[in-house]
Design brief:
The complex is a heterodimer. By secondary structure, chain A is α/β, with parallel strands linked by helices. Chain A has four helices and ten strands, in the order H-E-E-E-E-E-H-E-E-H-E-H-E-E. Chain A is elongated. The chains are: A alpha/beta, B alpha/beta. At the A-B interface, helix 1, strand 1, strand 4, strand 8 and helix 4 of A face helix 1, strand 1, strand 2 and helix 3 of B.
């Protein structure tokens, strides 16, 4: 029955891959739109607390970040395990209240903004939930002195059941 | 007869796209920034006396001690009760002697924006003089501190939202501040329910640190 004889020596049928670039490009565009560039490498461990009243930070260009947390593993060897403050890429390890470093940072960040937006500059404090408030109070005092008064305590959205809300 | 242009080999296009894709996956983040925005008080002038005399009934002391326990107005309290307590403090529904004074105030809203207001748009009512004094120790954990901040903000937001629902039939959150009328409503409500949370200068509460 030659009619049903298997075709031999031809192997598997090739899958048509001509639409693969299109699919990948679609994925690529999705990621380009949905994500933002990672500007700094965070060298402290920050797990921000949860809160119900959080709002989105509207204008990213007005926001500068201050990180406070315990150092990640490879930084730990140099700085120990005490909580550290990170401004952009720079870790601050000096004792006492870091007035000068924060003042310099605020001035530097403020200089980058157009004149009309300088008063709207927001400092986003990304602080680990287990950090003692002493460090946070120091930073707040320094920010007051540097006249950067709009601050944002970074937090994740917490969804609370209605019943538990007393 | 037109000469055919030779076809470009598109086989490697997928590889190039993948490479770009992986590059973006690695260098970008997806997190959206959310948080609680607060205003810090400006640094006082050198010669300025910082002590401000406030009537005792107008102040609610919220204290977080070094072992993260919460004391409100002299009594220990669960965090989840703080919101209700704050709302009571700011509204003083029973005109209690121990709760803050309420001051008769007139606030101008855009005329005709609400059926609940007279036609000239002036709201007449009582505005609380209450101030919440939030104090913490240097050893308080930040997470607990933010939870307390959150409850206080939640209380004020609820008061504002209730007022907005009742008078303007919309959520306070939905007010669009770039719109003139809604912006005026927004500012008016902010004057009625002020976010009066004062944070004292840091100090050590309760002994050693």
């Amino acid at each position: 029955m030659s009619k049903f004889r298997k075709k031999e020596g031809k192997g598997l049928q090739k899958i048509n891959t001509s639409s693969l670039p299109d699919i990948v490009f679609m994925l690529l565009f999705f990621f380009m739109v949905a994500t933002t560039m990672r500007e700094t490498e965070v060298q402290v461990r920050v797990k921000v607390p949860e809160a119900t009243e959080v709002k989105k930070l509207e204008k990213k260009s007005l926001v500068s970040y201050i990180y406070i947390g315990r150092p990640v593993a490879h930084v730990e060897r140099m700085y120990g395990t005490e909580p550290l403050i990170q401004l952009n890429d720079k870790l601050i390890s000096d004792e006492g209240i870091p007035y000068e470093s924060i003042q310099d940072y605020v001035l530097f960040e403020r200089e980058k903004l157009p004149e009309s937006d300088k008063s709207k500059m927001t400092m986003s404090l990304r602080i680990d939930e287990n950090i003692p408030m002493g460090k946070v109070d120091d930073v707040k005092q320094a920010l007051r002195r540097a006249r950067a008064l709009i601050i944002n305590y970074s937090a994740r959205k917490e969804y609370r059941e209605k019943g538990r809300q007393r | 007869m037109a000469r055919e242009t030779p076809e470009v080999n598109g086989g490697s296009l997928a590889d190039i796209a993948f490479l770009l894709l992986i590059f973006f996956l690695v260098t970008t983040t997806m997190d959206i920034d959310t948080g609680i925005t607060r205003l810090l008080p400006p640094e006082p002038e050198k010669d300025q006396e910082t002590e401000v005399k406030v009537n005792k009934r107008n102040v609610l002391v919220v204290l977080l001690n070094r072992s993260d326990r919460l004391m409100v107005g002299g009594y220990e309290m669960d965090r989840l009760d703080l919101k209700a307590k704050t709302i009571e403090f700011f509204t003083n529904p029973l005109n209690n002697e121990d709760l803050p004074e309420m001051v008769e105030t007139e606030i101008q809203f855009p005329p005709g924006s609400s059926a609940m207001l007279p036609s000239d748009g002036i709201w007449r009512g009582k505005v609380s003089k209450g101030v919440i004094s939030l104090q913490n120790d240097r050893s308080t954990t930040y997470g607990k501190y933010l939870q307390v901040q959150n409850e206080l903000v939640a209380a004020v937001n609820e008061l504002r939202n209730n007022f907005c629902n009742l008078h303007f039939d919309m959520d306070y959150e939905e007010l669009n501040t770039s719109n003139t009328i809604e912006g005026e409503i927004h500012d008016g409500i902010r004057k009625i329910y002020k976010m009066n949370i004062s944070e004292s200068d840091p100090k050590n509460i309760g002994g050693r640190n």
